[in-house]
Amino acid sequence: YFMLILGLCFVLGGLAVVSNPSPYYGVVGLELSSVVGCGWLMSIGLSFVSLVLFIVYLGGTLVGFVYSVSLPADPF
If you ran DSSP here, which 8-state letter would residue 6 be given? Predict the structure, then answer.
């Protein structure tokens, strides 16, 4: 049941990324799905891969989020 719940949360996080036009809520969905994916990897015994994957996703998400938030603030 635990793997089923993780899979469902992963799909819901992906749907949150796709269905939100606002970058603020899209980032929340992306982080939710990355945390759930890392939890799934940890449940099968790949804790180091999970940690590296989370750090890479977190860095990439933050760069994309800062870019998409700062772009509308530029008047030109």
Answer: H
Q: What six digits make up the tokens of 44? A: 């099968």
Q: What is the DSSP code string of 8-73?
A: HHHHHHHHHHHH--SHHHHHHHHHHHHHHHHHHHHHTT-HHHHHHHHHHHHHHHHHHHHHHHHHHH
Range of the domain at 52: 10-67
Domain for residue 49, yes or no?
yes
Which pair of tokens denotes residue 53?
């994957």
Q: What is the pLDDT of residues 7-61, one digit of tens each?
A: 888 888 888 888 877 777 777 778 888 888 888 888 888 889 888 888 887 887 7
